[in-house]
Design a protein that fits this description.
The protein contains three helices and six strands; from the N terminus they run H-H-E-E-H-E-E-E-E. By secondary structure, it is α+β, with helices and mostly antiparallel strands. It has one domain: Nuclear Transport Factor 2, Chain: A (Roll), CATH 3.10.450. A six-stranded mixed β-sheet has the order 2-1-6-5-4-3. Strand 5 and strand 6 form a beta hairpin. The longest helix is centred in the middle third of the chain and has 12 residues. It comes from Kaistia terrae. This is Nuclear transport factor 2 family protein. InterPro entries: NTF2-like_dom_sf, SnoaL-like.
Amino acid sequence: MQNAVNLSSLRQAVEGNDARALTSFYADDAEIRVIDQDHPPSRPLVLKGKQAIGAMLDDVCGRAMKHHLDDGLMDGTHLAFAETCTYPDGVKVYMSAMLELVDGKIRRQTNIQAWDH
């Protein structure tokens, strides 16, 4: 299947800051929930649809930072990974993500992230 996500393609896109490739992994009706210091579990940030997710990925990949996919696991319907991002000034962001896959595309994703202050 074209643009089906797997750990290798995900690592390449994440570490290459490739928003276009990352966006291609999502189903048209995908949803991302983000939980962090600004969006607690009872009020997560929710992005619905490939277009909204792509805009967020364009923003993140356009920032001056390095992304590293630390670890990941995948079975037929789920993918989980940890990612560390580092800004030029040394500030780090850690994210843990759980993804639900349908036909090789990401349908639902939950990100838990923490930032240095």
